[in-house]
Amino acid sequence: MFGCCLEDALVRDLKHYKNLGEFFQRSLRPGIRPIHNTCALVSPVDGTVLHFGTVKKGVLEQVKGVIYSLRGFLGPMEDMLSCIRTAVSDTRSVEFSMEKDCDIKTSIDSYIETLDLDDLDYYQNLLVNPANHLFQCIIYLAPGDYHRFHSPADWTVFCRRHFPGELFSVNPGFVRWLQGIFTFNERALYVGRWQHGFFSMAAVGATNVGSISVHFDKTLSTNVQSVWDTGSFHDAFFVGKQRNGVTLQKGEDFGTFNLGSTIVLVFEAPPTFRFEIDIGQKMKYGQGLGNQ
């Protein structure tokens, strides 16, 4: 069914599962996904690598040659940084305008030339160490993949930003066609720090996958578009009231999708960081993505 590998499942009898959602979120047999010992960054999911590489100033790539705005994907810099720097534990809503994206035929280098200083400042201010670079990695979960996602590194989460939005397909063919899809779709963005500085992981919704759940974030409410204003985002902070963020270990269970979707990692690391993967490579969660 959907090309699923039942051999890895803790329970292989399909009659055990009450519905498709329960089946897609199935548990795996203990030890079936060993966590890479030496790689600082591991795959958070079973899926296919769509893209990876350095973030060039204010620009992300969703696939080769199709670019979109870093600031449009993450949101305003001030609140993002306050997730880490201030002790606030409330939830609030603010208005948000999507950043415009350039024409699909525009090259990355020519697009960077059109960015104003605010875009470049945004990039620089995310860095804890100005000598570091920002990197990105995008992994697509097909319907047949295991639908839980895990921590890709040892890090501490300080903030969640929920963007209500569309639920376009994130199938690789569609991603090549619709520029900025990850800024349009509903997503839950988790922001914090790891050993090298800034670290973020976004769970992006897709067709039939508005439902995203995260184990430590009980207030996250996705796939309820009638509740949220169009163009808004909603922050929750995991600091204050005797909390100092949510500390996660590499490979630790993080959350679940309902039916196939995408994980986007944006993180800071030294210029010597190198990915050890290829575009189109099939990954299992816990396998190494890269290292310094």
How does this model look, in words?
16% of the residues lie in helices and 34% in strands. The protein is globular, with a radius of gyration of 18 Å. Strands 2, 5, 6, 8, 9, 10, 12, 15, 17 and 19 form a 10-stranded antiparallel β-sheet that branches. Strands 1-20-18 form a 3-stranded antiparallel β-sheet, with no helix packed on it. A 3-stranded antiparallel β-sheet has the order 7-16-11, with no helix packed on it. Residues 87-108 have low confidence and may be disordered. The chain has helices spanning 20-24, 70-74, 77-85, 108-114, 117-126, 172-177, 181-184, and strands at residues 41-42, 47-54, 59-63, 66-69, 91-95, 133-141, 148-150, 155-163, 187-194, 197-204, 212-214, 232-237, 239-240, 243-244, 246-248, 253-257, 261-269, 274-275, 282-283, 288-291. It has 292 residues and is of the alpha+beta class. The longest helix has 10 residues, at 117-126. It contains 7 helices and 20 strands. It starts with 19 loop residues before the first helix and ends with a strand.
